[in-house]
Amino acid sequence: EIVLTQSPATLSLSPGERATLSCRASQSVSSYLAWYQQKPGQAPRLLIYDASNRATGIPARFSGSGSGTDFTLTISSLEPEDFAVYYCQQRSNWPPWTFGQGTKLEIK
Amino acid sequence: EVQLVESGGGLVKPGGSLRLSCAASGFTFSSYSMNWVRQAPGKGLEWVSSISSSSSYIYYADSVKGRFTISRDNAKNSLYLQMNSLRAEDTAVYYCARDGIAAAGTALRGMDVWGQGTTVTVSS
After folding, report:
1. Nearest CB to B111 within list A46, A95, A98
2. Which of A72, A78, B9, B107 is the most buried (most CB within 10 A)?
3. How far is the CA of B63 from the CAs of A44, B11, B105, in angstroms?
4. With contact defined as beta carbons under 8 Å apart, do B92 and B36 qualify?
5. A34 close contact with B: CB closer than 8 A
6. Parts of chain A with a pLDDT under 70
7. Which residues of chain A neighbour B109 with C-beta distances below 8 Å?
8. Distance, in angstroms, between A96 CA and closest chain B CA?
9. Using one digit for the tens of pLDDT, what is the confidence trace for B6-19?
10. Are B113 and A36 contacting, i.e. CB atoms less than 8 angstroms apart?
11. Cα A35 from Cα B26, distance rounded (Å)
12. Nearest to A49 among B60, B110, B114 (CB)
């Protein structure tokens, strides 16, 4: 099973600042990594698929990068609605398609 | 409007059974692979099971293998999760989620549509 480790567990920033979230895989997942945003009481929302492709309707301030085992989600300038929990998920060729433990992005 | 609506959650005793349903609307259900993902109270997301568009490929997490069964009825635009031998650790919100399809028609390796979730509580 591929283990995804997200860091940091909690990130405290202010609106307007740049956020950088990390996801590291225990073995290569090529570019088959997705990022999701989840707000309290809501279902997750797909932000990024295949490491760097924005999903439909996702603002350009969200970007993803990386391949192999190291991936990054960057939010260029935080808006108030961006404070949430972010999960990465690997979608390699074979299941289980594991999630990371999440990074909570909170207002400083 | 593209929509997924789960139902069937509730309170069940350990060892009991429950069947979750997910009704799809607003898209061609038979063209998409589907998933179940769960989230225990205060915890992160856990992938549970996936089924391909024609039910040819079915996968389970080790934690539910042999106890849960995923299925679909494309004529009814519905996804199901039969859960048997339930344990306290199965307590969670269960989401159904659609695997996306990219503009080129290839599989989009991400879940682009989610339901609102249904709560399963396993307790005596």
Report:
1. A46
2. A78
3. 22, 20, 32
4. no
5. yes
6. none
7. 32, 34, 49-50, 91
8. 6
9. 999 999 999 999 99
10. no
11. 24
12. B110
